[in-house]
Amino acid sequence: MHSYLYDSTFDGLLTAWFYAYKDDTVYTICRNTDYQPDLLSQPVPVKTQPDKADRIRQSVQHNLSSYTMRNLYLLYLSELPDCDLLGLQYLRLCFQHGAGINHAKHHPVIRKVEDYRRKVYIEYDHMKGFLRFQQIGGQLFYARFAPDHNQLPLLRPHLERRFSDQKMIVHDEKRHCALLYNLQSSMIVPFTAEDAARLLENSRDDSIHAFRQYFQAINIPERANPKQQAGYMPHRYRKYMPETQPE
After folding, report:
1. What would the pLDDT profile of 8-29 be if each residue is shown by its tens digit?
2. Are 189 and 176 in contact (CB under 8 A)?
3. Measured between alpha carbons, how far is 217 from 211 in angstroms, rounded to an integer?
4. 102: phi then psi, degrees, rounded to nearest 5
5. Distance between CA atoms of residues 37 and 162, nearest Å
6. Which of 12, 72, 105, 159 is deepest in the core (most CB within 10 A)?
7. What is the pLDDT of residue 36?
8. What is the pTM of this model?
9. DSSP assignment, residue 99?
10. What is the pLDDT of the chain when averaged over all its residues?
11. Residue 246: per-residue pLDDT
């Protein structure tokens, strides 16, 4: 049994799928950082090879569909249990039956892929509404969050369109990286809690206080419905929403 290990990049995962596709002894596929040695499988380190990754990408686009390629990418971003192995199972299924297999919602693999896809998109919609920026000097704005799934690559086009006139840093604390946008282009780079602390050391944004006052003003105690509020504003996001925090 083989456990294929890759470097956490999508091209690395595509390379792992390339080598694992015809291997009938695949036990799992996972990132190097997530691998736990066991007695059931032998680790197979996979070095990222752009040419192999492109072969998988082009084959899916030309022989299957862009929808299938999108699903594979969302599985990678989901970071849910066994998402990389599920991607291999999904890839094999689609090449065996064609892109039309995506309509077979009763199939256990398709059903699980759709479930992972839905979870990523639900959180993506939440992040578009719950992401909070604070001004830290000049025209530079900073936001932090720690989503369950890797949302920065999905949010990148939205943020560039929505806030095209402001420089920004969007910090993913869970993955220790940040989206940097300078009005012309953006990139995702490593970014630690120490980097954020230095950035915020002397910053002050008075709008945060005004936002907290507004949030309290529109709250009607007699009509409080915590259960419904938690549905619209999940508790796990509130630590990054200043209006819900005490002064």
Report:
1. 999 999 999 999 999 889 899 9
2. no
3. 10
4. -65, -20
5. 44
6. 72
7. 83
8. 0.88
9. G
10. 89
11. 65
Q: What's the pLDDT tens digit per position in 88-125?
A: 999 999 999 999 999 999 999 999 999 999 999 999 99
Contacts of 51-54 spanning 24+ positions with Cβ under 8 A: 52/14, 52/15, 52/18, 52/19, 53/10, 53/11, 53/12, 53/14, 53/15, 53/18
| Side chain identity, residue 89 | Q
- Judge whether 149 and 120 are in contact, CB under 8 Å: yes
Tokens, residue 174 = 């869970």
Instruction: Give the Cα separation of 97 and 95 in Å (integer).
Output: 6
Q: CB atoms < 10 A from the CB of 4, how many? A: 26
Query: What angle (nearest 5°) sits at the alpha carbon of residue 235, between those of residues 76 and 206?
Result: 105
Classify strands 177-181 and 2-6 as parallel, antiparallel or unpaired.
Answer: unpaired
